[in-house]
Structure to design on (502 residues):
C-alpha cells in the first residue's frame, strides 16, 4: 500500500500574499497568531524545535523527504494552483523539486480549482484563506484570483506546463499513467473536452493517458475517486466543535457506499481557527492512538479493495490542524502511528475484520446516488447556472455575445427543459437562429423548429449547446461520434461571457 500525504506549498513568501495580507505573510503567520478559544483547545500549534521553515530552502525539502521515507510515506500530493489565463501561485516548491533531482520525494498534483476571494465576497464556491487578517486591496468584488477555464488553447497551455512534471521519474503513476487529482470536478463545465484533449496531448508527448482522480465527487469519466477527509464526512456536522471519534466512525461507515474504484483517506485532526477564528471548525480529541486505529482500518479496507493508494490529510496543513510533521506536543508520534498502522493492518483481529467485511458487503447502502440526492444535485447545478446568468444580465450583457464572437449563427439546443427554454427565449431576441432542438421527448414540443431525439440523425449546425449541464459528460460522449462540430455546455458559455465582466 502506498501512502500519499496531501501537501500545502504555502510556507514561503509570494508578492500576492503580501499585497493581500501584509508584508512577510505565509501560512506560518496565521499559525503563530492562533489563540485558545475554549478550555482544552489545543492552540497554538508549535512545530518541534520552532521549525517555522521556508519551502524555498532546499534543506527544508530534503528534511521532509527524509522524514517521509523514514516513516513509510510513499509520496506527496502537492496542491496545484492554476487560475484563468494561466495565472499560477505557490508553484515554486514543486518547480524547485523538479530541479532538485537528488531529493527522493515522489509526488503528484491535486488541482485546487476554485476561486480565491476575500471572506466578505458573496461569490459562490470560493476559497477564502483568512478572515482574521483583513487588508484593503482595492478590489470591490472581493476576488483575489478567479478560476476560469478558457478555451482549447488555454487547456493546452495548462497541459504543456505540466509535461515536465509528468515526465519526471518521481511523479506518481498508476500503470505508467501520471496521477492527476481534480479537487472540484463538478465545477468545470468543459471537463470532458479538457480531459479528452489532455489524453490526446499526453500520447503525443509519449506519456500514457492521464490517471484522473475526482475528489468528493461521483462524476463520470474518472479513473478513480477519493473523499478528502475530514471535509467529506464532516459535512453534516455544523457545530463549532466536533469529536474526532464521531468523524472517524462516519469515515468507516461511508466505506459501504463505494462501488467504483475508490481510494480511502484518513486525517490527523482538524482546526482552521488559526485562519477563521470562531467562524471556523474544530474536530477535537485526536490522538496518535486514535489516528493509528483509523488508518489501520483504512489500510485493511483499501487492501481488500485492491487499491494501490491510501491518502492522508495532511503532511503540513498547520493552519487547519492537519499535519504529520512533528510538533511540540506529540513530536513524531503521528508519523510513528502511521508507520505502525501500515505494518499492522494485515494482523487486524478476526472480529474486527468480520465487522468491516460486513459493513462494506452490505448491499442495501450501495446505491451511490439516491433519487433525492440526484434531485438535489440537479437543483444545485441549475441554481449555480442561473445565478451566474443573472449576473450577466445585470451587467447589461447577453449570451448572444458568445455566439457572435465565435461565429456561431445556427445553433442546436440539447435539452428543452427550464434552462433550455430560457436560452431559446433569449436567442429569440437576437439574430442567432436555433435551427433544431434535441430532447428525449422528441416532437412532443411545440416549437417553430424541429426537435430530434438523441439517437436520431441530425443536420449540421454551427454548435450544439447542452442545457442539461448536470449530465453533460455522458451527453458529450454520446454526441461526439455523430456530430463533427463543437458540443458545449450552457454553463461553459455562461462562464465565458461572465468572465468578460472582470
Amino acid at each position: 500500500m502506498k501512502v500519499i500525504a496531501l501537501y500545502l506549498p504555502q510556507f514561503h513568501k509570494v508578492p500576492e500574499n503580501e499585497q493581500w495580507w501584509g508584508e512577510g505573510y505565509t501560512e506560518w503567520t496565521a499559525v503563530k497568531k492562533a489563540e485558545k478559544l475554549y478550555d482544552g483547545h489545543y492552540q497554538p500549534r508549535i512545530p518541534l524545535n520552532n521549525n517555522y521553515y521556508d519551502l524555498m530552502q532546499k534543506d527544508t525539502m530534503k528534511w521532509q523527504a527524509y522524514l517521509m521515507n523514514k516513516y513509510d510515506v510513499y509520496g506527496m500530493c502537492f496542491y496545484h494552483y492554476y487560475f484563468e489565463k494561466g495565472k499560477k501561485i505557490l508553484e515554486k516548491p514543486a518547480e524547485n523539486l523538479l530541479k532538485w533531482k537528488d531529493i527522493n520525494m515522489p509526488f503528484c498534483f491535486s488541482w485546487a480549482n476554485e476561486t480565491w476571494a476575500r471572506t466578505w465576497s458573496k461569490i459562490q464556491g470560493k476559497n477564502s484563506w483568512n478572515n482574521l487578517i483583513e487588508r484593503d486591496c482595492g478590489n470591490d468584488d472581493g476576488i483575489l484570483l478567479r478560476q476560469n477555464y478558457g478555451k482549447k488553447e488555454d487547456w493546452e497551455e495548462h497541459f504543456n506546463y505540466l509535461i515536465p512534471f509528468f515526465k519526471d521519474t518521481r511523479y506518481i503513476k498508476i500503470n505508467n499513467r501520471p496521477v492527476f487529482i481534480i479537487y472540484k470536478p463538478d465545477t468545470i463545465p468543459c471537463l470532458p473536452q479538457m480531459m479528452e484533449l489532455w489524453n490526446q496531448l499526453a500520447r503525443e508527448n509519449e506519456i500514457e493517458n492521464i490517471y484522473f482522480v475526482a475528489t468528493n465527487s461521483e462524476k463520470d469519466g474518472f479513473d478513480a475517486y477519493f473523499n478528502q477527509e475530514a471535509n467529506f464526512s464532516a459535512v453534516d456536522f455544523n457545530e463549532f466543535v466536533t469529536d474526532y471519534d464521531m468523524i472517524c466512525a462516519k469515515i468507516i461507515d461511508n466505506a459501504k457506499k463505494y462501488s467504483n474504484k475508490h481510494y480511502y483517506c484518513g486525517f490527523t485532526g482538524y482546526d482552521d481557527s488559526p485562519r477563521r477564528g470562531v467562524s471556523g471548525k474544530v474536530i477535537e480529541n485526536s490522538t496518535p492512538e486514535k489516528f493509528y486505529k483509523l488508518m489501520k482500518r483504512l489500510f485493511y479496507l483499501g487492501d481488500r479493495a485492491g487499491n494501490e493508494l491510501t491518502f492522508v490529510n495532511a503532511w503540513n496543513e498547520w493552519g487547519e490542524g492537519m499535519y504529520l510533521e512533528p510538533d511540540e506536543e506529540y513530536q513524531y508520534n503521528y508519523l510513528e502511528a502511521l508507520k505502525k498502522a501500515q505494518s499492522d493492518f494485515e494482523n487486524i483481529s478476526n472480529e474486527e475484520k468480520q465487522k468491516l467485511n460486513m459493513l462494506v458487503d452490505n448491499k442495501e447502502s450501495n446505491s451511490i446516488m439516491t433519487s433525492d440526492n440526484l434531485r438535489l444535485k440537479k437543483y444545485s447545478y441549475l441554481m449555480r447556472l442561473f445565478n451566474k446568468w443573472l449576473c450577466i444580465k445585470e451587467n447589461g450583457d447577453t449570451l448572444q455575445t458568445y455566439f457572435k464572437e465565435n461565429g456561431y449563427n445556427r445553433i442546436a439546443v440539447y435539452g428543452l427543459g427550464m434552462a433550455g427554454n430560457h436560452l431559446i427565449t433569449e436567442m429569440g431576441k437576437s439574430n442567432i437562429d436555433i435551427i433544431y432542438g434535441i430532447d428525449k421527448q422528441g416532437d412532443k414540443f411545440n416549437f417553430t423548429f424541429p426537435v430530434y431525439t438523441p439517437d436520431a440523425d441530425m443536420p449540421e449546425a454551427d454548435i450544439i449547446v447542452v442545457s442539461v449541464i448536470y449530465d453533460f459528460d455522458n451527453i458529450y460522449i454520446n454526441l461526439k461520434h455523430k456530430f463533427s462540430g463543437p458540443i458545449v455546455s450552457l454553463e461553459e458559455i455562461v462562464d465565458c461571457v461572465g468572465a468578460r465582466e472582470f
Notes: The chain is about 35% helix and 15% strand. The CA atoms of residues 189 and 492 lie 5 Å apart. Residues 371-394 form the longest helix (24 residues).
